[in-house]
Amino acid sequence: MDTTEKETLIKLQALDQFEALLNNKEFSDVKFVVEGKTIYANKVILISRSSVFSAMFRNPMKEAQESAVEITDIEYNVMLETLRFVYVAKVNEIEKFSKSLLATADKYDLGGLKEICTDHLCTKISVESVVEYLSLADLHNVRQLKEKAIKFIIDNGNAMVNRPEFDSIVDLHKGAFLEVVRAVLAREKIEDSRSSKSYKKKLHQTYRHVLLQSLKQNV
Questions:
Q1: In terms of CB atoms within 10 Å, which end of the chain has fewer, N or C?
Q2: Any idea where the BTB domain is (predicted)?
Q3: How far is residue 24's CA from residue 29's CA, in Å, rounded to a whole number?
Q4: Hey, is 37 helix, strand or coil?
């Protein structure tokens, strides 16, 4: 075994030792209560990895005083994987939890976790998932995922236009829909769009509808 291999092995062993600290009651100084279950953790690790945790435990908040944090908006397994990333920069079952982990990464300011989830979701975009992913990207301000989703919608306009999820973009995320329309219009200026006339017609009609609704709300 050469020096590089030894260094790699030592680093992996160190990560395993750090991971062993997660959910270890004996050495913990803070606990998260999620769905009636407890996850034990260490403030010094949390503070060093997240600005949100740093603010939480450095300020005179209830959590800092009682060393307990009650979580009501995250599932137990998702919170456990979020903390696993904090400890050792990895997650288990990314396929299962990527959408939920994207939300927790945004909530706790974990840029690396956000990138991992984004990269995974970008490879899973389909006709069935693209609207949901566009909504997630819009909600959590993930530019890379939003751009991928918008491009997919444009490239697959014929398949997308009559799906009920397509209309939900307008109802729930007007900003994201307007970006889709702008991208379509920009493409039309430089090349023949592969989208059908019915797709472009519906885009233009809905675009006008969104603008009218916005004007009415501002009156």
A1: C
A2: 28-95
A3: 10
A4: strand
Which DSSP string do the residues of 59-97 spell out, in sequence order?
SS-HHHHHTEEEESSS-HHHHHHHHHHHHHS--S-HHHH
Token pair listed for 170: 């307008």
pLDDT tens-digit profile of 27-50?
A: 899 999 999 999 999 999 999 999
pTM: 0.78
What topology does CATH give the domain 12-124?
Potassium Channel Kv1.1; Chain A (3.30.710)
Contacts 24+ apart (CB under 8 A), 195-201: 195/154, 195/157, 195/158, 196/157, 196/158, 196/161, 198/158, 198/161, 199/157, 199/158, 199/160, 199/161, 200/157
Helices (H) and strands (E) in the chain, counts: 13, 3
Those residues with Cβ within 8 angstroms of residue 143's Cβ, 6 or more apart along the chain or in another chain: 137
